[in-house]
Amino acid sequence: MISDLIANIYELWGFNYLDAFSTIMYDNNFYTVVALYTVPMVLVCTFLYYYVFDRPKTSKFWIWFIWMLIIGIIAFIIAYVTVENSFFEVSLLPGDYSVENLIFSATNAVYACIIMFLFSVLIKWKSTNSSHVPF
């Protein structure tokens, strides 16, 4: 049930369906694996921005935006490497699906940025210096 929801979110309810690649990802629960790596990373990094690196010098929109881009890049790498390793585990050559993996990894990066933004809205209010970032 939850893996179906995660797959639908990644595939944008069919709009981002990538034929054989999506079928392999769904059949082997690779969507769920990538989400289980990505979501906690985003939550921890967002928490770090608001409560660990919470300084007057870091409480600027452009720093928050760079932080979000870094999270997106990390999410891209997580997805790309996880898919490549997972495909090897099921005896498939990830090179055969390199374009699809790039599209999927970019989708994961976008979702990571969206999750960071939404989590920021939820937790920023208690931050000492960054409670006004991103708005």
Count of DSSP strands: 0
| SSE pattern | HHHHH
**Large-scale geometry:** elongated
In whole angstroms, the N-to-C terminal distance is 36 Å
Number of helices: 5
Helix/strand class? mainly alpha
Mean pLDDT over the residues: 91
Strand content: under 5%
Uncertain runs: none
Notes on the structure:
The chain has helices at 2-10, 20-27, 30-51, 61-89, 98-123. The N and C termini lie far apart (36 Å). It is built from five helices and no strands. α3 (30-51) runs antiparallel to α4 (61-89), α3 (30-51) runs parallel beside α5 and α4 crosses α5. The chain is mainly α and 135 residues long. The longest helix is centred in the middle third of the chain and has 29 residues, at 61-89.
List the helices and strands and how they pair.
Layout lengths: L1 H9 L9 H8 L2 H22 L9 H29 L8 H26 L12
Summary of the model, kept short:
This protein is mostly helical and 135 residues long. It contains 5 helices and no strands.
